[in-house]
Write a structure and sequence with these properties.
The chain has three domains: 145 residues, Rossmann fold (3-Layer(aba) Sandwich), CATH 3.40.50.720; 152 residues, no CATH class; 70 residues, Orthogonal Bundle (Rna Polymerase Sigma Factor, Chain: A), CATH 1.10.1740. It contains 16 helices and eleven strands. The protein has a seven-stranded parallel β-sheet, with helices on both faces. It starts with a strand and ends with a helix. 48% of the residues are buried. The structure holds nicotinamide-adenine-dinucleotide and magnesium ion. The site of magnesium ion has 4 residues, from α7.
C-alpha cells in the first residue's frame, strides 16, 4: 500500500526536495496535501503534477488564483491560517512532513499529532519552542517523530539496532558556515549576501542565516535533546567543514558510530518518510580519495554567541528557548532586510531573554504569549536601533 504524505511548506527547499523523492518513487508514495504560504505559482505547478486531495495557500490574497488554476482537477483548494492548521487531520494522511519555516510550524504539528499522524520533522523550531509539549503529545497519541534534519537523521540511523543500549553522548557536526575562523571585528561588517552563501548546503534564507550565526547548531542541540531524550552535557558540537560526517553517537563502551555521505537532504528526507527501509537512489556517492582529509575543530563560542546561548537556555528549560527562537526569527528577518548588522542578532536575543518573563512550566498558551511578547519586544528594539 502506498504511503500518503502531507507536505507542509511544499514550495521551500525541503518541500521541493521531498517532492523529488516522491516523484522518483511513485509506487511507494502518494501526495495527499500540499501547503505553501506565498508561492502560488509553484504550488499550482506541484498540485497539477502530483494531484493531491487538497492544497492550502496560506496567504488568502492568492486563493482565487490557485482555485481557478486548479478548477479542472479534483483538488480541494483552501487558504488561510485555519486551513493550514487543520488540513493535516484528513483521514487519508499517514505522515505529515513539516517543512515550513519557523514558529508557524507549531500549531499544525500539534494538530497532526492529535490526529494520530506520524511526523517527519524538518521544522526544528517546533521542538525548540515547545519540545516538552510536543514529545509529551507524541507519547500520549502514540505517534512517531522521524527526524529530517541531517544531523538528527544521522544519529537516528546510528541508533537503529541499539535498542536498550544507553547513549553516552552524541556529537553534532557543524559546517561552521561561511564565517568560520572569522573574528567579531570582521563579522561586524558582513553583508546579507555574504551570509547567504553557505559553503555546503543550499537552503531557505532563514536557516542559511542561522547557519552563519551558528544559531542553527544551537537550535539543533535543543532539537536533539527532545528527539533523543538527552541532557545538555550529553550533546557536543564539533565543527567539520566538509559536511561528510553528518553526526555521531558514542555509547557506554566508548564505541562511536557515525553516519556519512555527500551532503544531500534527499537522503534524510526519504529515510524519514520510508523508515525503516532504505530506498535505492541515484544520488552521487562519496569517494574517500576526493577528500584526503576530513577535519574537526572546536566551535568558537565567544565569536558565535548564539550557540552558547542555546546551551544556556537548554539548561534553563521552561519558555527560555521559545524566547530565543522568537527573538532570533525577528532578528534574522531584520538582518535580511538590512535593518540590523550581523552581530546585532545575538544582542537582540540576549536582550529579549533578559526582558521577557521566564515561565518554568509553560502551557501551550504560555508559549503563544511568550512568542508574541518576544516578537513585539524585539521588533521595538529594532525600531530604536535603526
Ligand atoms: P524555505 O524558506 O525554503 O521554505 C519554507 C516553506 O514554508 C515554503 O514552502 C513556505 O511557503 C512555507 N512557509 C513560510 N512561512 C510560512 C507560514 N507562516 N506558514 C506556513 N507555511 C509557511 O525553508 P527550508 O529551508 O525548506 O526550511 C524548512 C524547515 O526545515 C525549517 O524549519 C528549517 O530549519 C528546516 N531544515 C531545512 C533544511 C534545508 O536543507 N533546507 C535542513 C534541515 C532543516
Ligand atoms: Mg541540520
Amino acid at each position: 500500500m502506498k504511503k500518503n504524505i502531507a507536505i507542509l511548506g511544499s514550495t521551500g527547499s525541503i518541500g521541493t526536495q521531498a517532492l523529488e523523492v516522491m516523484g522518483a518513487n511513485p509506487e511507494i508514495f502518494s501526495v495527499s496535501v500540499l501547503t505553501a504560504q506565498e508561492n502560488a505559482d509553484l504550488l499550482i505547478e506541484q498540485a497539477a503534477k502530483f494531484l493531491p486531495k487538497a492544497v492550502v495557500i496560506g496567504n488568502e490574497k492568492h486563493f482565487d488564483k490557485v482555485k481557478s488554476a486548479l478548477s479542472t482537477f479534483n483538488i480541494h483548494v483552501y487558504s488561510g491560517i485555519e486551513a493550514l492548521v487543520s488540513v493535516v487531520e484528513s483521514d487519508d494522511i499517514d505522515t505529515v512532513l513539516t517543512a515550513m519555516v519557523g514558529y508557524a510550524g507549531l500549531l499544525p504539528t500539534i494538530h497532526a499529532i492529535k490526529a494520530g499522524k506520524d511526523i517527519a520533522l524538518a521544522n526544528k523550531e517546533t521542538l525548540v519552542v515547545a519540545g516538552e509539549l510536543i514529545t509529551g503529545l507524541a507519547r500520549q497519541y502514540g505517534v512517531n517523530i522521524y527526524p529530517v534534519d541531517s544531523e538528527h537523521s544521522a544519529i537516528f540511523q546510528c541508533l537503529v539496532g541499539e535498542e536498550g543500549n544507553r547513549i553516552e553522548k552524541i556529537i553534532l557536526t557543524a559546517s561552521g558556515g561561511p564565517f568560520r575562523g572569522k573574528d567579531r571585528a570582521y563579522l561586524a561588517h558582513v553583508t546579507r549576501e555574504q551570509a547567504l552563501k553557505h559553503p555546503n548546503w543550499s537552503m531557505g534564507a532563514k536557516i542559511t542565516i542561522d547557519s552563519a550565526t551558528l544559531m542553527n547548531k544551537g537550535l539543533e542541540v535543543i532539537e536533539a535533546k527532545w528527539l533523543f531524550d538527552l541532557e545538555a552535557s550529553q550533546i557536543d558540537v564539533i565543527v567539520h567543514p566538509q559536511s561528510i560526517v553528518h553526526s555521531l553517537v558514542q555509547f557506554e563502551d566508548g564505541s562511536i558510530k557515525a553516519q556519512m555521505g555527500l551532503p544531500d537532504m534527499k537522503l534524510p528526507i526519504q529515510y524519514a518518510l520510508r523508515y525503516p527501509a532504505r530506498l535505492k537512489s541515484a544520488f552521487p556517492r562519496f569517494n574517500f580519495t576526493d577528500y584526503p582529509s576530513l577535519t574537526f575543530e572546536k566551535p568558537d563560542l565567544d565569536t558565535f554567541r548564539n550557540l552558547a546561548i542555546a546551551y544556556e537556555v537548554l539548561e534553563k528549560g521552561g519558555n527560555a528557548a521559545c524566547i530565543v527562537n522568537a527573538a532570533n526569527e525577528i532578528a534574522v528577518e531584520a538582518f535580511l532586510q538590512g535593518k540590523i548588522g550581523f552581530l546585532d542578532i545575538s544582542d537582540l536575543i540576549v536582550e529579549s531573554l533578559a526582558k521577557i518573563s521566564y515561565i518554568s512550566t509553560p502551557t501551550y498558551s504560555d508559549y503563544v504569549q511568550t512568542n508574541e511578547a518576544t516578537r513585539r519586544f524585539a521588533s521595538e528594539l529594532i525600531q530604536v536601533k535603526v
